[in-house]
Amino acid sequence: MNNNFIYYDYDIQRMVRDSSGTHTSSHSSARALSRRQFVTAVGASGLAVGLAGCSGTGGGDGGGGDGSSGGEVSTDDLEYGGEDVTVEYSTAPLFGNIADTLKQAAYDAGLPESIDIEFSTTVWGADDLQDRYNQILSSGRTTPDFMLTNFAYTPFFAPREWLLDLTQVLGEEKLNALENDYSQVMVDSMRWDGGLYGVPQFIDIPTIQYRKDLVEAAGYDPEGENWATEPLTWEYFAEVTKAAQEEAGTDHGYTTAMNQRNIGSITGYEHLVTNGGNYFGDMTNQNGPIGDRPVTIDEEQTVQTLRQFRTFLYGSDDEYAIEGLTGGITPPNALGWDTSPSMESFNAGEAITHRNWSFAIAEYGSEENFGEDLGVMPYPYGVSESEAAYEGAGGTNAKLGGWHLSINPNTEKLAATVEAIKAMTSDEFYLTIFEELGSTPPKPGLFESDRAQEVDVMSRYLDTLQFQSQNQFAPPINAVWDPQKSAIGQEFHACLNQQKSPEEAVAAAQSQVEQIEEQES
Amino acid sequence: MSEQQYSGLTGRIVKYAIHNSTDVYRLGFWVGLVSFIMITLFPFYWLLVLAVTPDNQLYQMGIVPDNFNVGVFLTVVQEYPLHHYIFNSILIATITVIVCITLGSLAGYAFGRVDFPGKGPLLLLLLVISYFPGIAFLIPLFELLTGSLSILGTPTPDLYNTPWGMVFPFTMLSLPITIFILTTFYSQIPDGLEDAARVEGTTRLGALFRVIMPLSAPGVVTAAIIVFIGVYREFFFSFIMTDGSPENWAVLVYGILNFQQQHTQMYNMMAAASLIGIIPIAVLVILAQEHIVRGLTAGGLKE
Amino acid sequence: MRQKVQQAVSPVFLKIEQLDEDKYGYLLVAPVFLVLGVLAFYPLVRTFYFSLQDDDLTGVHPIGEFVGIENYVQILSGDANAILTSPFFDLQAPFSSALIVTLLITGVSVAIGTILGLGMAIILNKEFKGRRYARTIVILPWSIPIVIQGMMFFLLFQPSLSPFVEPLANLGIFSSNPLISSQDSTIIIILIDIWRKIPFIALIIMAGIASIDQNLYDVAEVAGATKWQQFRLITLPQIKPVLFIGMIFYTISSMKIYGIVEASAGCSTVPTLTCLVVQTFRQQRWATASAIAFLTAVVIGVIIMVYVVRFREADAS
User: Fold this and answer.
1) Treating both helix axes as pointing N-terminal to C-terminal, what angle do B21-52 and C131-143 enclose, rounded to 10 degrees?
2) Does the CB of A371 have a partner CB in chain B at under 8 Å?
3) CA A201 to CA A421: how far, in whole Å?
4) pLDDT per residue as tens digits for the range A49-101
5) d(Cα B190, Cα B213) in Å, to the nearest integer?
6) What's the pLDDT score for residue A376?
7) How many CB atoms lie within 10 A of CB A9?
8) Could you tell me if A435 and A483 lie in one domain?
9) Which CATH class is domain C93-316?
């Protein structure tokens, strides 16, 4: 008999057995039936439940859904008793890297010292984060207690009650502030069916950044003409860009992200709105009713927008170029750019104007980069608000961006979590992240505060930021926007790649979007 | 084959080739080897160039970097504990390899050397698992492994943020190919060798571990390498089963993707982190070379 | 302690010795199938169950009511194409159909990759100085994380970052922005796949070659066979089973390509089957996504069947 071999086998078995994993300790809380308890109760009926039910909890039908999450939150739950507790906050590396500073800011803002916030950071591609939250929330995990979320998640998570309805927990004061002092577009982007599923943490404000020095060298006067708060027209903008480009001899003029992902739903959309157009008629139709609202892609403004882009890309040689509009200021390479690659040439000093989110200002405007030579102006426009085809469109306009804080409905530490959220949505906290990261506060009033005036770099551009934050629009927030923006992006991109005429592209986009509308209504 | 058919330089080359076939093979060999190495390495060279290029000079990079920023490797390790991520990856991969090779050997032995009905369908069943992209398993598996499922009243274990949360899915994904490879290699060992060992008193299972496996070393090591590397480079399940911090067993790919923010991707950092991450694999393969040797040389069976 | 364990365990081993062939066989494979039963088959059954339901976009749970095979019908007939980010199979736009694109990538990649892999295996099998380093180097492409593989080529073909795009465009090989052109990107994806799969298949083949009895070659040498004849008559037949296995997994893996596409050209430029599954899952259409996953598996299954049949024929002849 060979003895060694027996032990080998046994060791393996033991190793596998020992790894039965950690069991989460059961905190009993006074709150309404937690999903976990529901699971255990239902699970008693055996494996059959797992197979027949939806996510293995047997809570597939409407009744189960209500009872297992959200539900009624009693006022006792909200009373924080002062005990030592740690809440877990799932966030982006951007915040995770300065966790200590942020925690201090939270304490300064009034967070009880007995509450510790554990920052857990994760990968921050927007899609990846949605996947991860999808998993965590759909299976009813109790941690993280609260998370950094995006309004792109609202149509997916809100109807399923995978995020807590904050109107039940935030209290009068906060809710009032949300209605009055915050950027309404930002707050509304997390509303669904009467509930509020996130509180803004910071708002992202796209603007046009430009090289003031190069523009002045070409003979223009940004200061004098008050470009900071008086938007230019697209014609003037193109003219300026071209002149400065020729004068300075830079490789590119106007750079922006124009790949398929961006052109239909971000950069191209912005441009369309500044021309007075929209995909679904008036801005009040953004979210619905699906199937019952006009689809207005196949219209003159859209064609006009596409023609403007083609002029920018290819100049007057393009058969669809607009006469009189200066062209050839954007490299065709832009059609392959996402945000990051689009920044390269401006970063290297080889571009005049550049469209980007507010974080880029902090980067470009720093001393090592362009410092005071960096200028920031609001989006140019094609058609003024009063002459726009649709309400809410026209004039300078930029797409909404930014992130919110949402609470996991399965959290076992609700009271402490709410305290944390309140602290992290205080003015003190907003100004801290503005100082540290350049993340702009979602309350326009804060731009005028003393602290804001003293922030390095960003303080030079507060007026533009404030101005643009009052001229932002939100994308549609519903379950069909994803395939729709995909279709639109595809068609627009093909047009800008000179594969289709603008009329063909908008007609194709129109019909595809209509098809999707019908399928889902 | 008339030698007058070819003339001039071409003729001379062809004549040389025909008369010196060994040299031609030799030449072909070296050309082939060098080409493979160059093609393999070129993207890595590019990655290196990218890594050492300073942040603001990424635009219009040339083939040779203008400015070296070798400090980037230090920066990368200081920003995030890359070594911890690498350690996690190695540990999880090693555990997976052990589990896979063990379970797989049992099955490989059975499929390769034991006669029993239903082999074909069972093998097919194994193969079918690999037809599905990982995401097809995701939702049920996630519930199962994170304690969200209840079987007969007891909740399943919560393996979120533990290495086992990843070892199990990886094992599941790697078993098919492991078993197929091991089956192929185990079946090639002549019966004679095994019988000889049995005569000397080894148990049936003993024969597996003491005779078959050592003799199929190339196959076993290859399977081990395939599983190890497969786990090392995997991202999907390791993304879902941890929250991303190194204490919670996040793997190497996390470490690299930390440099990818919502709007900015620091390509040079990601490149540097990737290059650092390659080192353990390179070491592993160099060490494993010992065992991918010619097996079954004289000294095996003489019959 | 050892004694005790031994005593406890030896009757078990005695039992095992006494089992007849069949039962022994089943006993050995039982652990594997038990593990897979829980970790693989159960999830697949649930996913299949999902695929028979309807998507519920507005309700409390993404899975709605039972609709039988309707999801499958809709996907195959093209009715679902509006809500899918790229059609599964559209005769009018074959090259933007996920099915056709994936088949194309797989076909070309496997054909070229296997031959090159065979070449590499033969070369690396020769004894030469520094062989172990050469082997380590050539294995690198396959061993790096998938995201990095995609990223490398993204950077290699990004016009504003890479100096290679222009010369290639001037030579007419690629357009000036290869990553936004579907044709160019598909070719690039094929290249990436070949580049990273060659080590994989070479590794398997090398192990196969290493298992060939050296005596066979000695005998052949003595009998006057040329290198080429040795290759054809000894090496090739002996590595057939290994080659077969390698090609099967190569094919399966290429059919499931996703990570490198997402990291380089993007799923909208090169729609592959797994791209489609992932995107549909993201839209919270779990049922449709599950159906596509199963359809993908069926397609792969058919291809493997073809392989098996051809191999059987080749073996028989």
Assistant:
1) 50
2) no
3) 9
4) 333 333 333 333 333 333 334 445 555 567 788 888 999 999 888 888 899 99
5) 13
6) 95
7) 16
8) no
9) mainly alpha
Q: Which domains does chain B have, with CATH numbers?
A: 3-60 (no CATH), 71-298 (1.10.3720.10)
Would the CB atoms of A497 and C49 count as touching at under 8 Å? no
From first to last of the 317 residues of chain C, give the pLDDT tens digit: 777 766 776 777 777 777 777 888 888 899 999 999 999 999 999 999 999 998 887 777 788 888 888 889 888 888 887 778 788 887 777 777 899 999 999 999 999 999 999 999 988 888 888 887 888 888 889 888 888 888 889 888 888 778 888 888 888 888 888 888 888 999 999 999 999 999 999 988 988 888 787 788 888 888 887 777 778 888 888 888 889 989 999 999 999 999 999 888 888 889 999 999 998 888 888 999 999 999 999 999 999 999 889 888 877 65
Contact between residue C300 and residue C289 where contact means Cβ atoms under 8 Å apart: no
3-state secondary structure string across A40-81: HHHHCCCHHHHHHCCCCCCCCCHHHHHHHCCCCCCHHHHCCC
C41 CB neighbours in chain B (<8 A) are 129
- For B37, the closest of C137, C215, C293 (CB atoms) is C137
Q: pLDDT > 90: what percent of chain B?
A: 21
Cβ C274 vs Cβ B133: under 8 Å: yes
Burial class of residue B283, CB neighbours in 10 A (0-12, 13-18, 19+): exposed
Residues 81-140 of chain C whose Cβ lies under 8 A from any Cβ of chain B: 119-120, 123-124, 126, 132-140
Question: In angstroms, rounded to a whole number, what is the distance separating the alpha carbons of residues C85 and C66?
Answer: 24
Structural domain that includes position A103? 77-197+401-472
Closest CA to A123 of B274, B249, B244, C266: B244
DSSP A89: E
Chain B closest-CA separation from residue C298 CA (Å): 8
A22 contacts on B by Cβ (under 8 Å): 157-159, 162
Could you tell me if A212 and A336 lie in one domain? yes
- Which amino acid does the sequence have at B249? W
Same domain for A239 and A104? no
If DSSP codes are grouped into helix, strand and coil, which group holds residue C66? strand
**A77 CB neighbour count, 10 Å cutoff:** 18
* Cα–Cα distance for residue pair C278/A344, rounded to 1 Å: 30
Burial label for A511, CB within 10 Å (0-12, 13-18, 19+), is: middle
**pLDDT for C257-276, tens place per residue?**
999 998 888 888 899 999 99
Q: What is the ipTM for the molecules in this complex?
A: 0.87
Answer whether B212 touches A (CB < 8 Å).
no
Distance from the Cα of residue C200 to its chain's centroid = 11
Chains near A (3 or more Cβ pairs under 8 Å): B, C
Q: Is residue A17 pLDDT above 60, yes or no?
A: no
